[in-house]
Amino acid sequence: MWSAFTMLLKKKLLNAVAGLAVALALPATAYAQAAPAQPAAAAATKDADPALWVVKDADTTIYLFGTVHVLKPGLSWFDEAVKAAFDKSDTVALEMVMPDPATMQGVIMKAAMAPQTDPALTTKLPEASRPAYAAALTSVGMPASALDRFEPWFAAMTLAMAPLPKLGYDPNSGAEMTITAAAKAANKQLIGLETFEQQIGFFDTMPEDLQVKYLASTVKEFNNVGPLLDKMVAQWSAGDPDALGKTMNEEMRKTPEVGKILLSDRNARWADWISARMAKPGTVFIAVGAGHLAGNDSVQAYLAKHNLKAERIQY
């Protein structure tokens, strides 16, 4: 489920990708269809209890919180043990801290455009995928050839994001948005485990054949994005990281070279960072995509190799 991994990436990165696609590829009338929907009437609040872990020694405490990067309004999750852990923390670490919009668009523009000598993107897709690809673009108000001069990863991410507003997922309701705003309001140190350039690079440096597989899979799953994301959010809300990890990561793990780039290697680097940070006193609240905190190659599994145990906090 490639689109499931797309949801692991930071929502604002995805919005930047989709926003640039709109700016470069769509006429003004189409932008009105693709732009985020206006806020709906306030939804009834529903309790959510996503999973939370802690790693600690005598003078250092590090909380691990798994997020889903796009959410519908009305979920009450930033409370109870999650909020208590956040409040105790001096530092908040996200996958990345977003740069300004101009910087983001510059990075994406440089990475996303295919060389002028490349054939049109549509011709790179398997023939069987082309009608569904054109239909998906048309359904979000884009001409079938709108993304022909872009690289496959960019088209895939654009298609993954485009239907979300119509499905009720508010761009302002993602977990990172809430955590970032709270960290700034409390004057906490806010740091990124990665940079915007790195996260774009995970896709841009992927061999083209894998990018095409990513796009073809996104097209295949296009009409299932809503049910898939609803399932992920329900599992996240219920505090079931094993089920959520399976939903997010199962298909990607079938392509080991992709799983290595997008999951295993990153989890290992983050575990290294946590191990090094344990040598310094203080309390840190780490929030990363929930799929990174599940499975045999999770952050917790790599922490065990550093003789560090992440304990689940029950609440």
Contiguous runs where pLDDT drops below 50 for at least 5 residues: 1-5, 7-41
**Quaternary structure:** single chain
Beta strands, count: 8
* Basic shape: globular
Largest sheet: 6 strands, mixed
Calculate the mean pLDDT score and round it: 85
Question: Can you offer a commentary on this structure?
Answer:
It is a single chain. This protein is an alpha/beta fold and about 325 residues long. It has one domain. About 50% of the residues lie in helices and about 10% in strands. The strands form 2 sheets. A 6-stranded mixed β-sheet has the order 6-5-7-3-2-8, with helices on one face. A two-stranded parallel ribbon has the order 1-4. A hairpin with a 3-residue loop joins strand 2 (about 50-55) and strand 3 (about 60-65). Helix 8 packs parallel to helix 11 and helix 12 (about 225-235) packs antiparallel against helix 13. Mean pLDDT is about 85; it is low at about 1-5 and about 5-40. This is TraB/GumN family protein. Keywords: Signal. It comes from Sphingomonas kyeonggiensis. It holds the Pfam family TraB_PrgY_gumN.
Strand-helix topology:
Elements: H1 2-6, H2 11-25, H3 28-34, E1 46-47, E2 52-56, E3 60-67, E4 75-76, H4 80-88, E5 91-94, H5 101-112, H6 121-124, H7 130-139, H8 152-161, H9 175-185, E6 189-192, H10 196-204, H11 208-221, H12 225-237, H13 241-253, H14 256-277, E7 282-289, H15 299-304, E8 311-312
Parallel strand pairs: 1-4, 3-7, 5-6, 5-7
Antiparallel strand pairs: 2-3, 2-8
Keywords: Signal
Pfam families: TraB_PrgY_gumN
Signal peptide: 1-34
